[in-house]
Amino acid sequence: MAIEKFERICRNRLSFGKKTVVYFYPKASTPGCTAEACSLRDNYDRFLAAGYNVVGISRDSVKAQKNFSDKNALPFPLLSDPDASIIKAFGAWGEKKLYGKTYEGILRKTFIFNEKGELVEIIDKVELTGLSFEEVAQVLRNSLTASSVVSV
């Protein structure tokens, strides 16, 4: 269901036919999210060369996403999901702890889709420094086959 919803929402914004890395992050312009986005930005040419789109999604407003993207010269799109419907559909919403308090929020997760828009890998527990190209490449090398699709 999450794949179908993602395809429906993004069909006009992204061109499937390319592999896609979709990453979820808690809040634009915070130190951890900035480090994560900049890590992806710094490796963006390598993602493109390997045939990948990169897309970031958070609950931030379109204006906040644009400001974040402009300030950090992000070459990939950032999508606004203010009601967290896409975030929840992907299972990137859940319980978090900070300074002893428990609350619900966006979990740092990365999803990798093949060129058909099929989910092939989920990377949980992304470090604050973000995902480097090497980490994504290693995950893909460790995948069983390109045809093994994760069902959600």
Plain-language structure description:
The chain is an alpha/beta fold and 152 residues long. Helices cover 35% and strands 25% of the residues. It is built from 6 helices and 7 strands, in the order αβααβαβαββββα. The chain has helices at residues 2-10, 31-42, 44-49, 62-72, 85-89, 133-142, and strands spanning 19-24, 52-58, 78-80, 93-98, 101-106, 109-113, 119-123. The chain has a 5-stranded mixed sheet. The chain has a two-stranded antiparallel ribbon with strand order 4-5. β2 (52-58), α4 and β3 (78-80) form a beta-alpha-beta unit. The longest helix is centred in the first third of the chain and has 12 residues, at 31-42. It is globular, with a radius of gyration of 15 Å. It starts with a helix and ends in a 10-residue tail after the last helix. The relative contact order is 0.21. Residues 144-152 have low confidence and may be disordered.
Keywords:
5-stranded mixed β-sheet, two-stranded antiparallel ribbon, 6 helices, alpha/beta, 152 residues, 35% helix
